[in-house]
Amino acid sequence: MDAAALHASALDLRDVLLACPELQAATTVAAYVSVDSEPGTGPLLEELRDRGVQVLLPVLLPDDDLDWAPYDGAEQLAGTDNGLREPTTAQLGPDAVLDADVILAPALAVDRHGLRLGRGRGCYDRALARLAGHSWTCVLLHEGELLDLPVPREPHDMPVSAAATPLGLNRFSDSVGLPRSGS
């Protein structure tokens, strides 16, 4: 996708997510800053901040765990040696994610059982395991990244509740009391 298509997709993804009751009710959202050709999170992060929602962003620790820091605007982000963009605001600790009502996680793909294919370091699986089903979890995908075939699974892999694409939301469980639905 070129830059214009990525931006248009990010706007559509923002609209899909903002229509979710889980996001509408959230006071704290743990998200991430998209990089390169990942589904865009910038418009969503700005809209959540403008609405007064506390947004927590990950900071990758040397042991591949995630610390969390508040999002205070794009000007408070810095590039890292591993190609990520992280907040420069004060870190709150790995357990700060426990305060999030919604977790938005990156993925290369997800299958119809909610198992995500990440980059293989287990960073988000650690964060999702801390939650033990406490928060609604959703991955952000491009069209075509929701797979009918199962993704490879390791014992530490944690499923997510839903996957959002620019065309809609796909739910994998009713763990938050909402009916299962397609996009």
Based on CA atoms alone, the radius of gyration comes out at 15 Å
**How many distinct helices?**
4
Mean pLDDT, rounded to whole units? 88
User: How many DSSP-defined strands?
Assistant: 12
Strand order of the largest sheet: 3-2-1-6-9-11-12
Q: Give the CA-CA distance, first to last residue.
A: 22 Å
Fold-level CATH name:
Rossmann fold
Question: What is the H/E order?
Answer: HHEHEEEEEEEHEEEE
Number of domains: 1
Q: Indicate the percent of residues in helices.
A: 10-25%
Poorly predicted runs are: 174-183
> Would you tell me the structural class of the helices and strands?
alpha/beta
Shape: globular
What composes the largest sheet? 7 strands, mixed
Question: How big a fraction of the residues is strand?
Answer: 25-35%
CATH structural class: Alpha Beta
Question: Can you give keywords for this protein?
Answer:
183 residues, alpha/beta, Rossmann fold, seven-stranded mixed sheet, three-stranded mixed sheet, 12 strands, 25% strand, globular, disordered C terminus
